[in-house]
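User: I've been trying to design a sequence by hand for this structure and keep getting stuck. Would you show me what you'd pick, starting by listing the structure so we're on the same page?

Assistant: Good idea, let's start from the same input. This is the structure you sent:
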């Protein structure tokens, strides 16, 4: 699209920035996999694009990124719709990674590949109903993936369910297997204490969980600041925002 003079070059500058920061993040992930003795590609890089425009997601897709994380609805739904309209041919997935109100389950089920922040029986119910109607309408063709969010410290502000509450939620997801698919666990390391110790604790919970739910192979752990610790501790999906996108805008709508 031809825009005013300067618009093209701003876009080129952003593309160059994202190209460099994405390459650096990929190199961090690869180095952490090597250091942990893990196969290349066993920890996937998810780019967290929350607060940033649809255009950034498009540039990242051109640079080869294929997995994205968003945390706010309706901003996320609008962004995904925009990118799908601009690039109907491109293949990418977007996960909901932020805390989710039940009343927003319906719209999230239209675009989300998975919801990583599932932490209550009420939310599982709402997502199952929402995914069912999305499947019926043809908005989606596959069940909605679910990662149960583990809370290591029980702090309700950060979301998540304590380890002891996970099996009941997992059984509920399995009971809705026409609409939902149990993919694994997600964790955000608590702010206090040492990230490495928290992530090691999360890895132990995940190992036990997988004994009972072998299909739950995913452990989504690690962000810009702690992805190396997470990869040593078995993370299969690191969610990286700031290190790729730059600092988030302070004002949010
Ligand atoms: C924002 C966010 C991230 C990314 O955090 P950075 O520190 O910017 O990499 C990861 N996970 C969740 C759940 C988030 O909300």
């Amino acid at each position: 699209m031809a825009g005013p003079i300067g618009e093209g070059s701003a876009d080129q500058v952003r593309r160059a920035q994202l190209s460099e920061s994405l390459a650096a993040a990929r190199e961090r992930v690869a180095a952490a996999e090597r250091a942990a003795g893990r196969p290349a590609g066993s920890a996937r890089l998810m780019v967290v694009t929350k607060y940033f425009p649809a255009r950034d997601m498009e540039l990242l897709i051109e640079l080869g990124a294929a997995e994205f994380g968003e945390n706010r609805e309706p901003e996320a739904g609008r962004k995904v719709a925009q990118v799908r309209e601009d690039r109907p041919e491109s293949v990418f997935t977007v996960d909901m990674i932020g805390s989710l109100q039940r009343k927003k389950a319906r719209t999230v089920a239209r675009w989300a590949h998975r919801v990583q922040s599932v932490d209550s029986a009420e939310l599982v119910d709402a997502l199952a109903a929402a995914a069912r109607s999305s499947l019926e309408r043809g908005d989606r063709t596959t069940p909605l993936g679910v990662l149960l969010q583990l809370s290591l410290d029980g702090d309700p502000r950060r979301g998540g369910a304590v380890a002891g509450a996970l099996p009941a939620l997992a059984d509920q997801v399995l009971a809705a297997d026409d609409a939902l698919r149990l993919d694994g666990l997600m964790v955000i390391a608590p702010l206090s204490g040492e990230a490495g110790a928290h992530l090691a604790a999360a890895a132990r919970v995940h190992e036990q969980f997988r004994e009972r739910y072998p299909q739950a192979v995913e452990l989504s752990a690690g962000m810009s600041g702690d992805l190396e610790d997470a990869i040593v501790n078995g993370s299969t999906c690191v969610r990286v925002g700031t290190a790729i996108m730059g600092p988030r805008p302070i004002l949010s709508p």
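That's my pick for every position. To get oriented when you compare it with your attempt: Residues 48, 50, 71, 97-98, 188, 223-225, 239-243 surround pyridoxal-5'-phosphate (CB under 6 Å). Residues 205 and 211 are 10 Å apart (CA to CA).
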